[in-house]
Amino acid sequence: MNFEITKIDLAKKLFNTNNESVLKQIQDILEKEEIVAYSINGKPLTRTEYIKEIKAAEKDIENGNYISHSQLLENIKTW
Predict the structure, then answer these.
(1) Coil, strand, or helix at residue 34?
(2) How far is Cα 54 from Cα 79, in angstroms, rounded to an integer?
């Protein structure tokens, strides 16, 4: 079955259903934001969350909350 036929078939089924639970589930799926990245702890991030994390990181850099590459290499030696 090609993509367009599948879409039309689903649209017909949606239009004809009276099951509110099914409609709610489909609405939730369609409105769910796509995962675009993962945090260093493995938490999935949506586009909105990812941008928020980037802005927070940029603010940390502006405030001097970072270590240089050479400092990191020195820290690794103590692990």
Answers:
(1) coil
(2) 28
Q: Are 47 and 54 in contact (CB under 8 A)?
A: no
Q: Which tokens belong to 1?
A: 């079955």
Residues 6+ apart with CB under 8 A from 35: 44, 45, 46
Could you tell me which residues come within 8 angstroms of residue 14 by beta carbon, excluding any fewer than 6 positions away? 23, 26
Three-state DSSP class for residue 45: strand
By the 10 Å C-beta count (0-12 exposed, 13-18 middle, 19+ buried), 50 is classed as middle
Encode pLDDT of 10-51 as tens digits.
Answer: 999 999 999 999 999 999 888 888 899 999 999 999 999 999
